[in-house]
Design a protein that fits this description.
about 280 residues, alpha+beta, Metallo-beta-lactamase, Chain A, 7-stranded mixed β-sheet
Length: about 280
């Protein structure tokens, strides 16, 4: 496999740098990171391949995969059928021959779109290996630490990829946080832009779910408004089991209103409905 195995990869978050060993990792030590405070150490792709492998499965009608033993943010990637091939949604740090073979069996990659900088990882390696573009929002350009001509930065609020796929800028978690709307499946892949919780009636929104830092009213309204032009039922997060199978659009609406009530100080236990009441 033709990759640069000498470049530094953060052992915490999986971000690959242009340098052999930077003084620090901007992603791991950002306040939004659940890895903040862990000792700084570095690895390489070559080392990762000796200790980890990518495991494939299926959820919400899509082929997904994640790295085992768990690495970085334990995120999951998806292969979304597109242009006679696939668009990969989000990115794993580990890229090896076995993974390439499995993806080629599924039709290969015609493009990659990544929700936010926590999952940029080794995206340049992937883009070079499959010779495909990576779609990122312009607002997060400053978080890119390894550059390549295949990185495609888009601006404004939506970017139509064709064949019923649209990336939507939500902002919030990161200024350029984006989600993927799959019209043919009435599904949105949300990653960290919308936080899927154990509550069957609500989702949530955070600047940093790891550090419990909330968003303000304007940011939450902006996220909710970004979804309004699109029809969908299913929400799919960035980890196995994080799926809302139906009612996702209405769930975002009511969750945004509840969140705004909370940050205004208007929410109390006395105003909350009984369990399941909202769904009746």
């Amino acid at each position: 496999m033709s990759t640069d195995q000498t470049l530094a990869v953060c052992s915490s978050c999986g971000t690959q740098y242009d340098e052999v060993a930077p003084a620090t990792c901007a992603i791991s030590h950002d306040p939004r990171s659940s890895l903040r405070g862990k000792p700084l150490s570095w690895t390489t792709l070559a080392e990762l391949r000796t200790r980890h492998r990518n495991v494939f499965g299926e959820e919400a009608g899509l082929v997904g995969f994640t790295t085992e033993p768990s690495f970085a943010f334990r995120q999951r990637g998806f292969l979304v059928p597109w242009r006679g091939s696939n668009l990969m949604w989000d990115c794993m740090a580990l890229l090896d021959d076995e993974t390439v073979a499995r993806i080629e069996e599924q039709g290969g990659l015609a493009g990659i779109a990544i929700s936010h900088p926590h999952f940029y990882t080794t995206m340049v390696e992937w883009a070079q290996r499959f010779d495909c573009p990576v779609y990122l929002h312009e607002d997060d350009r400053g978080w890119v630490v390894r550059h390549d001509e295949r990185l495609r930065f888009w601006s404004r609020e939506t970017h139509d990829l064709g064949e019923e796929l649209t990336v939507i800028r939500t902002g919030g978690h990161f200024a350029g946080s984006q989600v993927l709307h799959i019209a043919s499946k009435a599904t949105v892949l949300v990653s960290d832009a919308v936080v899927l919780t154990t509550d069957p009636d609500h989702v949530s929104f955070e600047y940093s779910w790891a550090q419990f830092l909330p968003l303000d009213e304007q940011a939450v309204r902006g996220i909710a408004d970004a979804f309004e032009p699109f029809e969908f039922e299913t929400l799919v997060g960035g980890w196995w089991g994080h799926v809302v199978p139906k009612g996702g659009k209405e769930m975002i609406r009511r969750s945004a209103e509840r969140y705004i009530s909370a940050v205004r100080g208007e929410l109390s236990a006395r105003t909350l409905p009984a369990p399941g009441e909202e769904r009746r």
